[in-house]
Amino acid sequence: MQIHSAIPDLRAALNNRRGIVFVPTMGNLHAGHIALMAQARARGDTVVASIFVNRLQFGLGEDFDKYPRTFAEDCEKLSAAGVDLLFAPAENDLYPETQQYYVDPPEIQSQLEGAFRPGHFRGVATVVLKLFNIVRPEVALFGKKDYQQLMVLRNMTRQLALPIEIVGGETVRADDGLALSSRNGYLTPAERAEAPRLHRVLRGISDAVRNGRRDFAKLESEAVAELGRNGWKTDYVAVRQQVDLRVPQPGNTVLVVLAASRLGKPRLLDNIEIQAVQHER
Amino acid sequence: MQIHSAIPDLRAALNNRRGIVFVPTMGNLHAGHIALMAQARARGDTVVASIFVNRLQFGLGEDFDKYPRTFAEDCEKLSAAGVDLLFAPAENDLYPETQQYYVDPPEIQSQLEGAFRPGHFRGVATVVLKLFNIVRPEVALFGKKDYQQLMVLRNMTRQLALPIEIVGGETVRADDGLALSSRNGYLTPAERAEAPRLHRVLRGISDAVRNGRRDFAKLESEAVAELGRNGWKTDYVAVRQQVDLRVPQPGNTVLVVLAASRLGKPRLLDNIEIQAVQHER
Predict the structure, then answer these.
(1) For residue A279, what pLDDT is reported?
(2) Is A199 among the catalytic positions?
(3) A155, closest residue in chain B (CA to CA)
(4) CA B129/CA A170 separation, integer angstroms
(5) Paired sense of beta strands B254-263 and B267-275, if any
(6) How much is the pLDDT for B279?
(7) How close, in Å, is residue A105 to chain B by CA atoms?
(8) B162 vs A102, A133, A159: nearest CB
(9) Residue B183 main-chain phi, psi, to 5 deg
């Protein structure tokens, strides 16, 4: 596996390569990332991964400085997964000057995650656009665990006429259902034992909606209450339309339930896609 | 010359082409545009022009609907100038849905032209980014007559890590000094006779600054007054730094004087780059 940190070096290495499949990451790789690499390996001739902890998408008081960085282990995992090239820029490679030109996502960026992380999706969209302009892939993969991010990037790519196919990768879970995440490492043993409740609660909503319930607000508030009784501080539990993450229109059955909640210090995310049944009225 | 309006057709035609040089326009081509095509012809193997009147960069009350459209004549001129491919999308090709993802230029977008045309540079930056993503040129040319636009696009390209060289083309003028512009066609004969004053006034400031004057505010207000005495309504006359169009720092000698002024209905733009002398203090 080649490793490049300078943009001109990566460009030279990719020159004349076809079928580039790209998986951007912030490192601290777990089995969810590696599943994306395997999916990428099956999709194209040249698999490029990137590791870059993007300061632009972290807000004030967020964990940019202590975000886990495990570069040597990450390289071993990527190499074993069949990645051809790793782009691992330093901050000065990607931001040699203060970033002043941003991609500004629409109003959805201020809902759900965006309501709790102002500017987050602007930072994500801008760095991914820059990475796309450097790597120029035909396909790019992002995990479904960050579901709103996947939606923002898919819409950005289409609306900016980038010739890139955006593919979502399924969330990888521990045996007890907890979605794998770099932030799980912050959990104490007691919190780790409690953590799978988030997925169980979402599964409960998913089952109810698939069985025909449409009283989403009630399902959401019951879930927030159950989490609260068990020590969680919940930012949101929300049933939304998959296509645009807006509140479901009557009759829309292609849904997703998303949640963000804090267990102690770590803030955990999860979601489940729901194909509800179309009921006669 | 091939002509394509659908994005997939253009992409297919450009597939495997190297050395693409791109000149985006809004049509109604004059000798200034044709000089850009000649410059493009000398720079690369494949010259691509585009014609698209971009609604996003026109404000309320601006002349989008009556902007002159002369497609047949434009095609003849482009073909004669050696253009290989013309991309002429319909509005629905470039904006098949409401545009929601924009490139947001920094604060300079609200100065000079931006102060009088809110959202203009956001619209310009967004459409040019889309055109770049479709055409994927190695070089793109823009006239210096829209000087602030050239600066915004150059900075956007660098900051978003696009592998594209941005080249400015010299302003082409009538014998009496009037900068060629699609909007000159709106001038009455009497206004057309008066119009070269804008260039003469800028030339006067340029000469004064090259000879060592640094009292820019006085030069600017004298110019506005002279234009006013002759029936012009001036939005701005401003001496700025070339690099970022900010007010010149002491000792900065790489300058440009820019103006926008209305003569009757048409709003005319012009500018002159100034290499001032470095004086001892």
Answers:
(1) 63
(2) no
(3) B101
(4) 31
(5) antiparallel
(6) 63
(7) 5
(8) A133
(9) -80, -10
User: Is B106 close to A100, i.e. CB distance below 8 A?
Assistant: yes
Does one domain contain both B165 and B188? no
Residue A279 belongs to some domain of the structure: no
Question: Structural domain tally of chain B?
Answer: 2
Domain match, B205 and B132 both: no
With a cut of 70, say whether residue B212 has pLDDT above it: yes
- CA-based nearest residue in chain B for residue A154: B101
User: Which residues in chain A are contacts of B159 at CB distance < 8 A?
Assistant: 97, 99-101
Q: B62-99 pLDDT, tens per residue?
A: 889 988 899 999 999 999 999 999 999 999 999 999 99
User: Are residue A30 and residue A161 in the same domain, yes or no?
Assistant: yes
Out of A33, A120, A199, A279, the active site residue is A33
Chain A hits for B103, CB-CB cut-off 8 Å, are 101-104
Cβ-contact B110, B118 below 8 angstroms: yes
Say whether both A188 and A222 belong to one domain. Answer: yes
Tell me what pLDDT residue A233 has: 98
Pairing of strands B46-51, A267-275: unpaired
Residue B174 resides in a domain: no
Closest residue in chain A to residue B133, using alpha carbons only = A162
Domain end, chosen from B169, B204, B235, is at B169
Cα atoms found within 13 Å of the Cα of residue A161, Cβ hemisphere only: 26
Structure confidence at residue A223 (pLDDT):
98
Domain end call among B169, B190, B218: B169
Both structure tokens of A151: 């939606």
Any idea what the CATH number is for the domain that residue B84 is in? 3.40.50.620
- ipTM field: 0.92
Whether B7 sits inside 8 A of A161 (CB atoms) is yes
In this structure, the answer to whether residues A138 and A264 fall within a common structural domain is no
Same domain, A139 and A204: no
Min Cα distance B258 → chain A (Å) is 23
Show the tokens assigned to B118: 């809110």
Q: How far is CA A203 from CA A267, A275, A276, B124, in A?
A: 19, 13, 13, 46
Domain, as residue range, for A238: 182-274
A176 domain-assigned = no
Output the domain CATH number for residue B233.
Answer: 3.30.1300.10
So what's the pLDDT on residue A255? 97
Contacts of B134 in chain A (CB under 8 A): 161, 163
Please give the C-alpha separations between residue A21 and each of A37, A47, A60, A138, B238, in angstroms, as whole numbers: 9, 5, 33, 6, 48
State how far the Cα of A183 lies from the Cα of B129, in Å rounded to an integer. 35
Same domain for A84 and A44: yes
Residue A158 maps to a domain: yes
pLDDT value at residue A109? 72
pLDDT > 90? residue B171: yes
User: CA A113, CA B164: separation in Å to the nearest integer?
Assistant: 34
Once rounded to an integer, what is the mean pLDDT over residues B187-192? 96
Q: Does one domain contain both B39 and B140? A: yes
Residues of B with CB under 8 A from a CB of A: 7, 11, 94, 97, 99-106, 125-126, 129-130, 133-134, 155-156, 159-163
Is residue A277's pLDDT more than 80?
Answer: no
Residue B169 pLDDT level (bands cut at 50, 70, 90):
very high
pLDDT confidence band for A198 (50 / 70 / 90): very high
Residues of chain B neighbouring A101 (CB-CB closer than 8 A): 103-106, 125, 155-156, 159-160
